[in-house]
Amino acid sequence: MSGLFITATDTEVGKTVITGALAAALRQRGLAVGVMKPVASGGVTSQDGKLLAEDATFLMRAAGLAESERSYVNPVCLAPALTPAVAAVESGVTINVPDLVAACRCLLNRYPMALIEGVGGITAPIWEEYLVVDLMAELALPALVVARPNLGTINHTVLTVDYARRRGIKVAGIIINGWDEAKAGVLERSNLAYIERLTGVPVLGKFPYSPDISVPKAKVTDLAALAEQHLAIDRIIELLGGTDHAGH
């Protein structure tokens, strides 16, 4: 059993795209990988009346998992597009934290390697005062932080890494999402240099925007290829415990 927790400096930074990209690349290499979005808000109602998380659908498509795995991938789905603690109250739902932690450990035991994606940033409330960082600390997995390339990202990333470390979480790497190599100038490149310099954490990739990738539409075209091209997949496999996890 091994895993990584994928978090971010904020919401809408691209955790789901990066988690899916890693899953697709690992799958393409013949490695069995589980994916999980323990809590999702902003769920949509399917044609048969079921509340589904688009993030979970995207992750399942990327990892090649059947619909029957959905309850393991996403045990809690809430309709309001709000932070989970608020979305739950608005929905009349109680989030049972011990059950949620147990579901994460169940997923980790079902697969030889797993990627668990948080919701929002690390201080987003899951239920009452229980934050994403509390779940990260309980699971004790190394973390990857997804960050933006633009102005302000140094501050957001350094604060996220520092807070995680204060809670005893190992931050194993940083991935920049939405990188545009053709337009990257002194701002973007200096951001990367300072993030590594101030955190001491390596940047393990600069993932580009692709119109062929869409979370709402569950489009995963070329996801694995882009991951291989732009992310340090070999290093990430090492963080997951090596290459002795082929098969299921």
TrEMBL record:
Q: Which GO terms describe its molecular function?
A: ATP binding; dethiobiotin synthase activity; magnesium ion binding
Show the catalytic activity: (7R,8S)-8-amino-7-(carboxyamino)nonanoate + ATP = (4R,5S)-dethiobiotin + ADP + phosphate + H(+); (7R,8S)-7,8-diammoniononanoate + CO2 + ATP = (4R,5S)-dethiobiotin + ADP + phosphate + 3 H(+)
**Can you say where in the cell this protein is located?**
Cytoplasm
Binding positions (Mg(2+)): T16, D55, E117
Tree of life domain? Bacteria
Look up the record and name the pathway of this protein: Cofactor biosynthesis; biotin biosynthesis; biotin from 7,8-diaminononanoate: step 1/2
Query: Where does the chain bind ATP?
Result: E12, V13, G14, K15, T16, V17, D55, E117, G118, V119, G120, P208, Y209, S210
CDD domains xref list: DTBS (cd03109)
> Got a GO cellular component term for this one?
cytosol
* Binding sites annotated in the UniProt record for substrate: S41
The name under which this protein is listed is ATP-dependent dethiobiotin synthetase BioD
Organism, by scientific name, is Thermosinus carboxydivorans Nor1
Q: Which gene encodes it?
A: bioD
